[in-house]
Amino acid sequence: MASKCLIETRNAPPFYKNGYLLACSETGQTALVDPGDEVEELLQAAEARGWSIQSILLTHAHIDHITGVGAAKQRYPVPIYLHRADLFLYEALPEQGEKFGVPVAEAPRVDFFFNDGDTVRWGNLEAEVIHTPGHTPGGVCLKIGNLLIAGDTLFAGSIGRTDLPGGNYAALMDSIKERLLVLPDETRVFSGHGPPTTIGEEKRSNPFMR
Fold it and tell me: Which of 17, 25, 31, 171 is the most exposed place for a label (fewest CB within 10 A)?
């Protein structure tokens, strides 16, 4: 029997952004994705299940997706992955915090930079990196079998904002239509905000796809 990807998600105020644990069902090895203010809940969930965190994967570097990276890295000295095009946002985490009135320390150094088409492995799972610029220049989605961790590229019934620094509406729509909507309709989509969906459902009902 092939390994399954076991998924746990949590969110917390003030941003209510979804952070994820992606665990290999056979080995318990786990990727921590986009740890934000819910990071402690995610770490406790992993520890309660006996899952071993192997990496910290970042879909992009807006404040709500990275405020928990420092705490996670301190507890688990595992590699941090990010697309290089978002490094300017990542390194400006304290300045991002100032804009929202949230004091945040500098984020720890990125260990590896994603490139489009890269694969990242943990346990018996493998994620394919799909570069989807538009919400941010370095936004990526992670495809694990028929699962897609979409960050803030695509939501149930909506798309990511493009009015923040580095946003580009035309680039985002190209990313979604050319890189995501070509995936099988049954692909399950787990986004940075809101409930899960599928590629097929977004083709049928997402108003931005018309």
Answer: 25
